[in-house]
Specification:
Length: about 270
């Protein structure tokens, strides 16, 4: 059976999450998702707090829905530069530290390491640096929008795939509230919806990424035609964002949104 799931999410266990974990899981269930790969910020957590998260994920999981515990950890690339790494399915708390040390600790704890929103960091990322990770977040819904990933991240991912040295690709919501849930998903084919089965497929790169108008293998990434389509969508989206910054255009768009927002009675203002 093919199961669809959401990656990169923060509940109220994170300092900036807006929804309790049970409510977040219930909303994802309602939207047709079968699993959640949680990535709680480590900023305000400790080992005891993570054990509570693991217990809550277990209580929220059943044959129809799986909540996989995980962390988003700040790691040091250099003394002046931090990267954020997701630790998926780890069976114990992972402390901060240099990137190689954190990645090794994640593996020892039975989890997977995913390099998150790489566009936010140094523009001089070397392929050898990302080869140590199990995954690379190609597409971040919060940072990139839901139309296309950033070209620099796409180029990095394609280069890694071409040299067969890179991690498999992920698309993540980076959601902090219900409005962060978008048309990005991981699709896994497995007989049983268990944490062991899901992590095994992720570790092997045996899953698909689905987004608006795109579907491609996580291990290979988008092909040339899909990449061209993403580039076109990205250019259109960036042009729209630039126009929105103009006072006249931005004001008109905001006014149109207010006019079409449903009233308390559920009717449009003009009805």
């Amino acid at each position: 059976m093919i199961y669809r799931g959401a990656f990169h999410a923060h509940s109220k266990h994170s300092y900036d999450g807006q929804q309790p974990l049970p409510a977040l899981c219930a909303e994802l269930r309602r939207r047709g998702d079968h699993f959640l790969l949680l990535t709680e910020h480590d900023d305000t957590l400790d080992a005891a707090a993570y054990e509570r998260i693991r217990a809550e994920c277990a209580a929220l999981s059943d044959a129809q829905f799986l909540a996989v515990p995980g962390l988003e950890i700040r790691c040091w690339r250099t003394e002046r530069e931090q990267w954020h790494i997701a630790a998926l399915g780890v069976g114990a708390w992972i402390p901060r530290g240099p990137i190689p040390e954190v990645v090794e600790n994640i593996r020892r704890a039975g989890g997977l390491s995913v390099f998150l929103h790489p566009h936010k960091y140094s523009r001089q990322i070397e392929l050898a640096e990302i080869a140590r990770f199990d995954g690379l977040e190609l597409w971040n819904g919060k940072e990139d929008g839901h139309f296309a990933p950033r070209w620099r991240t796409l180029r990095l991912a394609r280069a890694a795939a071409a040299h067969r040295t890179g991690p498999v690709l992920y698309c993540g919501h980076d959601l902090h509230d219900f409005d962060g849930i978008g048309p990005l998903a991981l699709e896994i084919e497995t007989d049983a919806l268990t944490q062991a089965a899901v992590l095994s497929r992720l570790r092997d790169g045996n899953f698909m990424l689905r987004a608006r108008g795109f579907r491609f293998p996580a291990a290979r990434g988008p092909n040339a035609l899909q990449s061209l389509g993403m580039l076109c969508w990205r250019g259109t989206y960036e042009s729209y964002r630039a126009l929105r910054r103009l006072p006249l255009v931005g004001g008109a768009v905001s006014a149109a949104r207010r006019a079409w927002r449903p009233s308390d009675s559920g009717r449009r203002p003009e009805e």
